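Order emerges. One example.
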Amino acid sequence: MNTLFDKDLEHILKHTSALWGEMKDAHLFITGGTGFFGCWLLESLLWLNSRLNLNLRITVLTRNVAAFAKKMPHLVHRSGIHYLEGDVRDFAFPKETVDYILHAATDVSMNLTKTNPVLEYDVIMQGTKHVLDFAKEAQTKRMLFVSSGAVYGPQPYSITHISEDYSCQPDPNSAYAVGKFKAEQMCCDFAKMHGLIVTIARSFALVGPYLPIDIHFAMGNFIRDAMQGGPIIVEGDGTPYRSYLYAADLVIWLWHIFLRGENCRPYNVGSDHAITIAELAHVVSQQFDTKPVVKILKTPDPHALPARYVPSIERAKKELGLFPYIDLIEGIQRTKVWWLQR
């Protein structure tokens, strides 16, 4: 573990220490435990398990144990953690009680919306149904469903920060958005029928170690371009607004929503500090000594209103006392250093 990650894990411990009393000696089952979200959740769990003597038993579902062990050996051969190989849609149910389930499967880095939307939708829907069936059999008492801000659909420009009270209208052309929205509904219907507590986290854009730098995430691509000396390429016109929550703060938010959130009440997870994609590219450039040039490939339409994907986080602030603790520049710096160390 490097010093940077130690700082992040101590940050998570500081802001979640009051949560863990009820988790002592518990059994936690995690899907999606080997993606961006999953790696951070496992890093924090293993740290907390050791520091607080929680005696947690952690079972992680993954499609390929050997591949993950090669990628992240320090997360595999650890006390208290067991890996179950299988597909989220049809894995064999472990024959034991599971106190808590964290369902974070369907890694958006699969980017199946364009290549195979039918498969993406099936993984979300059938995977969620299978996990809920497992929760019933395993006598689970609480589950976190990791959803997405994509469930809201295109954000009206007049709404600078979209809240959980906004009526969800997911883009019908996005299997991911439609699947996440319907899976939320499935979870809540199941919760009402079977007495399971299901909390819902709707995540927005993120920055931090483990963020992929070779797929469709603008932040990751900008950091990659800068590490290679530039130019930093903005594929579009740079006008859309986004906001970025640092990954250590993401983990703090997820653990609070998981253990303190209200049943079937969604919580946005993100930063409320809006920035355009063009501005973001320049901010990333400024974090490197070489200050690589930024190239924006398309010219903005002066008559078009820029798109937005920025959450209101008032619910999380007021009900759970959550805030973005690490600012954007610090988050980019830590992500840059982590990738350079790799």
Notes: The first helix runs from residue 3 to 16.
